[in-house]
Backbone:
């Protein structure tokens, strides 16, 4: 699965600043600005496997070559495989993709159930291994924070996510904590695995495992009331016909009940947690990431998630006193029918429009006016504005 983001949706202009550690220029974190990527493998922890052996836990760290940023956000990614299969190399392309955006990307190990050695697990065993995986992910986040100077990572801007079981791992790492209502049987499993932080790297326990946001690809949560106000934002994509991790509520792999992205999204919004969800009609569990018919939805998801994380990364970047605080952009009329005007504090070179699945809308641009000849379907459209200094600003327009 190769993510190919397209610029389709934005509500805010971006701040520009010089002398800041994190570079927010309207390109980085939104577009693949680096093409040369290096990878290193490091051990972030160790623990006891489900069959009793001590095993090391590694991460493959992807970084952009030639990046002169002094500090960067990080993305921790976990593979899928129903907690019975998979390894960190499955997400190599995604690691390269996020490094290309300007992140430090870490594709991690976590413990799984060795089905070929121990047979198919029951619900108790799969719950246990999911808690083990949660501890492994938290150890990986803490490790990156402990090695922040070596990887040039901003410890406040570490994101996590994954596919399927990897996403379930990330979600529970972020939302399951001691303040939640936890059934006695699950609390016993958590305690046996080193508590909520796990025991995969006790030397880093002084660091927080909290992340800045979640990337959810076909994941879910065991209990919706584990999502509390003030917890990290999440951007999601999920097939509505998923029978492995149900879109709403059902049995995951026939073993444990779970609430999918369709159930989580309204709970996130009800708790005032920033969230987005791209629902893929008739999409299954993993086919949405490979079949051409679903590509527009994946492209849309990546554009939306990139913008969400960009806003999180760049919201603290303010202008220096000798520069304007932001580019002023106003679009009107809004709602519109067949044209819009763009009012800007900066000179505009060009402007384009896209629909919400990333399809380019043929328009003409002249004298700060966009015209379109075809009748557009009612809805929200994205406006991409190219300024004189080659930076880009994104806004939205509602078409009646």
Residues:
């Amino acid at each position: 699965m190769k993510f190919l983001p397209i610029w389709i949706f934005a509500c805010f202009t971006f701040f520009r600043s010089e002398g800041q550690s994190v570079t927010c220029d309207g390109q980085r974190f939104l577009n693949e600005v680096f093409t040369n990527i290096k990878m290193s493998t490091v051990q972030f922890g160790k623990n006891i496997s489900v069959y009793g052996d001590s095993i090391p836990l590694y991460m493959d760290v992807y970084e952009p070559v030639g990046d002169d940023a002094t500090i960067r956000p990080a993305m921790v990614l976990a593979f899928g495989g129903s907690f019975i299969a998979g390894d960190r190399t499955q997400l190599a392309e995604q690691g390269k993709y996020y490094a290309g955006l300007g992140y430090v990307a870490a594709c991690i190990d976590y413990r799984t159930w060795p089905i070929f050695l121990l047979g198919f697990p029951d619900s108790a065993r799969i719950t246990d291994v999911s808690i083990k995986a949660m501890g492994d992910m938290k150890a990986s986040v803490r490790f990156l924070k402990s090695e922040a100077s070596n990887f040039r990572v901003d410890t406040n801007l570490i994101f996590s996510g994954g596919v399927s079981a990897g996403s379930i791992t990330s979600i529970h790492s972020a939302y399951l904590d001691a303040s939640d209502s936890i059934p006695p049987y699950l609390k016993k499993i958590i305690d046996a695995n080193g508590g909520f932080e796990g025991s995969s790297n006790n030397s880093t326990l002084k660091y927080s495992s909290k992340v800045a946001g979640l990337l959810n690809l076909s994941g879910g949560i065991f209990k919706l009331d584990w999502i509390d106000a003030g917890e990290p934002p999440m951007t999601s994509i999920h097939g509505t016909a998923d029978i492995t991790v149900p879109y709403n509520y059902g049995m995951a792999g026939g073993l444990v009940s779970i609430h999918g992205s369709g159930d989580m999204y309204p709970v996130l919004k009800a708790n005032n947690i920033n969230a987005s969800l791209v629902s893929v009609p008739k999409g299954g569990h993993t086919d949405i990431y490979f079949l051409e018919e679903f590509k527009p939805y994946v492209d849309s998801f990546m554009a939306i998630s990139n913008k969400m994380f960009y806003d999180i990364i760049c919201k603290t970047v303010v202008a220096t006193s000798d520069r304007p605080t932001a580019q002023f952009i106003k679009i009107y009329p809004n709602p519109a029918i067949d044209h819009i005007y763009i009012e800007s504090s900066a000179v505009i070179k060009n402007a384009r429009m896209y629909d919400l699945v990333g399809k380019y809308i043929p328009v003409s641009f002249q004298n700060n006016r966009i015209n379109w000849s075809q009748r557009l379907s009612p809805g929200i459209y994205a406006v991409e504005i190219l300024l004189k200094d080659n930076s880009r600003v994104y806004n939205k327009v509602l078409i009646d």
Remarks:
- Residues 1-21, 316-326 have pLDDT under 50 and may be disordered.
- Residues 123-146 form the longest helix (24 residues).
- The two ends are 36 Å apart (CA to CA).
